[in-house]
Amino acid sequence: MRENPLVLHVLGARPNFVKAAPVVRGLDELGVRQGIIHTGQHYDALMSDVFFADLGLPEPVANLGVGSGTHAKQTAALLVGLEEVVEAQEPDLVVVYGDVNSTLAAILVCAKLGIPTAHVEAGLRSFDRGMPEEINRIVTDSLSDLLFATSPEALSYLATEGVPAAKMHLVGNPMIDSLFAALPSLDSSRLEGIPARYGVATLHRPANVDTPEAAAELVSAVLEVSRQIPLVVPIHPRGRARLAAAGLVDGPGVKVVDPLGYVDFLSLVKGAALVVTDSGGVQEETTMLGVPCLTVRPNTERPITVTHGTNRLVTPAALPAAASKALADGASTPAGELPVLWDGASGPRIARVIAAWLKGENLSPASRNGRL
What we know:
Elements: E1 6-11, H1 14-29, E2 33-38, H2 49-55, E3 62-63, H3 71-89, E4 93-97, H4 101-113, E5 117-122, H5 132-143, E6 146-149, H6 152-160, E7 168-170, H7 174-182, E8 199-202, H8 206-209, H9 212-226, E9 231-234, H10 240-245, E10 254-257, H11 262-270, E11 274-277, H12 280-289, E12 293-296, H13 304-307, E13 311-314, H14 319-329, H15 346-358
Parallel strand pairs: 1-2, 1-4, 2-3, 4-5, 5-6, 6-7, 8-9, 8-11, 9-10, 11-12, 12-13
């Protein structure tokens, strides 16, 4: 290892920025040289650029600007762009986050170039290979040198797949670090035109929006919910046209808004009486904020948000009734039952493991169980 090793972080979409910020800060405090590659997978300024400002992330060393496209076209563009930047930067370690196509491409590029990698949020599984993200998770974990898990069950899934214990580290959830840091700034009154009592809906998964039939069924259910409580709907660029064609537009009970920055979005969620989503990160954020969450999916790679949080899985057909019950019951996560190590200190844990690894130190079992 070089005397002054370089760590590169590959970020492509909103959740990546939120997870990376605490790790970047932790490594900075330890004096580790680092840089960010922004792939531009989320090319909308409201889905990416604003997050750099909200989260205090440094300017990227490169912005690939790949934009949207089919999985094949987007991943191909990422492979070409990342290979060029990684070869030029000559990092000693590349850190990837989550399960987006940018993560998959970075892992493949580094595996071919012989560059070590670390995966933050390793071991999550929905056990549904029909989800593109599930394929990305499996491939990424199989090729990573360091695997940082957010929950104990993630470690067991990795072990079942044959990952050596020495590679795995239980560190908690760095997304929660960012949420804790933002809490003092959260205030739904900063957002104009929001009703006193409202719900939030965020919808973008392919299974929900990529066909007219699926989008129509989902929008019909969401509009039924809007008759129980006004809904604020930040529209993700993915699926915007399909959802609008199915009738998810401004109207009675529905306020459609552009994507929000990190603090504004969390402010909206914190003040909500109910959240309807298909996003993984939102399941985690609502768990920590004690907001009832209905996830319109048949499965989740984050089951801990169901067992230890406010999240429930629902079908579109069951959504209106589930919303009625959630609004009647309310929700708050019982004290002492939050997921283990979701304590706002995951970024420094990850940074300490990376710094020790860069020095060639043998990591103890304690470091693999969040006690380094």
